[in-house]
Write a structure and sequence with these properties.
By secondary structure, the chain is of the alpha/beta class. It folds into 2 domains: about 325 residues, Rossmann fold (3-Layer(aba) Sandwich), CATH 3.40.50.970; about 35 residues. Helix content is about 45%, strand content about 10%. The chain is built from 14 helices and 7 strands. The protein has a 5-stranded parallel β-sheet, with helices on both faces. A two-stranded antiparallel sheet has the order 4-5. A hairpin with a 2-residue loop joins β4 and β5. This is Pyruvate dehydrogenase E1 component alpha subunit. GO terms for molecular function: magnesium ion binding; oxidoreductase activity, acting on the aldehyde or oxo group of donors, disulfide as acceptor. It holds the Pfam family E1_dh. Its cofactor is thiamine diphosphate. Keywords: Oxidoreductase, Pyruvate, Thiamine pyrophosphate.
Length: about 400
Amino acid sequence: MLTDEAGRGANQATEPANNVQNPRRTGGDLVQLLSPSGERISHPEFDLWISDVSDEQLCSFYEDMVVIRRIDAEATALQRQGELALWPPLLGQEATQIGSGRALRSDDFVFPTYRDNGVAYCRGVPVPDLVRAWRGNALFGWDPYRYNIATQQIMIGSQSLHATGYAMGIQDDGADSVAVAFFGDGATSEGDVNEAMVFAASFQAPVVFICQNNHWAISEPVLLQSHVQLADRASGFGIPSMRVDGNDVLAVLSATRIALDRARKGGGPTFIEALTYRMGPHTTADDPTRYRDPNELEDWAAKDPIARLRALLDRKGLLSDELEARVKARADAVAAELRNGCINMPEPAPLDVFKHVYSEENSWIERQKDHYTRYLESFSGSAQEGAH
């Protein structure tokens, strides 16, 4: 039974906040398990969900975050060098993407935004495929069904509808996998996200909505579009929500595990607001210095997600020279793979534009392909006539 924040329903009256079956937010508390200085903070409900995280896994999360930041920096450099048409940086959002991405099962299906390259990395997408569409060589970068992650969505918020529809299909199949939709704070003002939450709540669909509140919807601050916390918006649809520190990889991991478990057990959708910050531009076509106070960036740089986890590893005596060397070597190798794959990416054939337009061939698309083929052949014919 789904309830609102007032706790309607006698069976919910005595349940604690953040209960697995109904993780109701109370008082807008921000869940944080790791302070900016790397101090581990205890939380009675959320600690349970990361009790299995070993020292080895902490080091692995650190490596993941360093690697995806390096991917981001390399792709930005490739764009500046004219190898990519555009790139949407994820700088500052590494903890949210790794914490959620590593919580998923292989049969869960992800519906990402254009910025969720860290989640795609967690799903096993080859790094050159991350830039295939941005180089203009393909309509999309990878086979969604091979990695269980949809192609990156440019239209703001529409992936939330796709995720909800997929989740309803999971229900029909009788499976216990979960659909996960990622979107930014700006998307919560879009009709698609609100419509998705209506359907998800109505059908109790096994979908998790992860809102990466990075404070800026391009050049508009989040406080301009919402005078309440974004997590509060979900309660209006009857969807329980959590608000976590998005720069804390452990808090994000725990919250995502709670939401996934709830969905698998038939508890319906959950909304997670991960409070983070976009430290770079919206895309490489954007200049954030025109609208953002540099003091704000400085404040958030002190909450850097990678530095935070690094500080925890140091406190635990895990930050060895060997670990640092291994992580650097991995980041260097991945960056080299990305650059090599991008620069040497084969150009698409002219007729490839007709591929994947429809799931099956039809006379309408075949007619266009025939016309375009004869158009291309006319150029080769002209060249031959000129030779004579």
